[in-house]
Design a protein that fits this description.
mainly beta, Immunoglobulin-like, 5-stranded antiparallel sheet, 5-stranded mixed sheet, 10% helix, 51% strand
Length: 253
């Protein structure tokens, strides 16, 4: 009888362990990626026109109406200054924003979509024609200024586009997530080695944290700032011949 009870208890423990492992695997199973499709109207722009940027956000074919953040970043080819405008949900997963552009020339626009633990971004070139009818040449999507949100990195033939996204309201002595989304040639830069280096003001001591790729081209690291102040966060990226870094400013309360 005692042996039978021990056998039954052993089988029960094995069953519970198997169920627990299965549940754990299900809990960590990633969801379907969030997709984004971009358009703009009108297709033929003239200086002084108002352009409407559209991005339709879906997951597994279904509209995503609960995106954490959707915005558009645009700039004129050759200019360092970028303008960023927030998008509004129109329904059925469609987010839009409008911008009046007064100068003719070649432009770029990035959409940034943060939703359900995914971040999507893509650069699209567009042209604003002169009222006199002159048509500037349309730039290529992988041309123009590097999208860095910060200071320039190493000079090399590789152009890495950065979108740095720290957690909101980071507090002193509290673990917080730093996230960066990397792209090259308008495609996610995956399987790279990424590190966050950070320091306060002119401090000589610098701290380093390895980042983990949580989605294609999206890297996250957990950091903790010991004191309040203005910090510099340098993102280091290495993959093959790519050896790059960018600086970003971060204020900790």
């Amino acid at each position: 009888m005692k042996r039978t009870m021990i056998l039954l208890l052993s089988m029960l423990m094995l069953l519970l362990a198997a169920c627990g492992k299965e549940t754990e695997q299900q809990a960590f199973q990633p969801g379907a990626p969030v997709e984004a499709a971009f358009t703009l109207e009108p297709k033929e722009l003239v200086a002084g026109d108002t352009v409407t940027f559209f991005v339709k956000v879906t997951q597994d074919g279904q509209p995503v109406d609960d995106a954490k953040e959707v915005k558009f970043e645009w700039w004129k080819d050759g200019q360092e200054k970028h303008e960023t405008i927030p998008a509004s949900l129109q329904g059925d997963g469609v987010y839009t924003a409008q911008q009046t552009i007064s100068e003719p020339g070649s432009y770029f626009v990035y959409y940034h979509v943060t939703a359900r633990d995914f971040h999507n971004m893509q650069k699209t070139p567009f042209t604003v024609n002169s009222k006199t009818g002159a048509t500037p040449s349309t730039p290529q999507a992988n041309a123009g200024q590097s999208h860095d949100h910060g200071a320039a990195g190493h000079t090399n033939a590789e152009t890495v586009d950065y979108h740095f996204s720290p957690a909101d309201n980071i507090q002193v002595a509290t673990p917080a997530a730093l996230t960066v989304h990397l792209m090259k040639d308008n495609k996610a830069l995956d399987k790279a080695t990424v590190k966050f280096e950070f320091w306060r003001g002119n401090d000589e001591k610098h701290s380093f944290v390895d980042a983990t790729e949580t989605a294609a081209g999206q890297y996250e690291g957990s950091v903790q700032f010991s004191t309040a102040g203005d910090y510099t966060v340098k993102v280091h990226v290495e993959k093959g011949d790519i050896h790059d870094h960018k600086d970003f400013s971060l204020s900790i309360k």
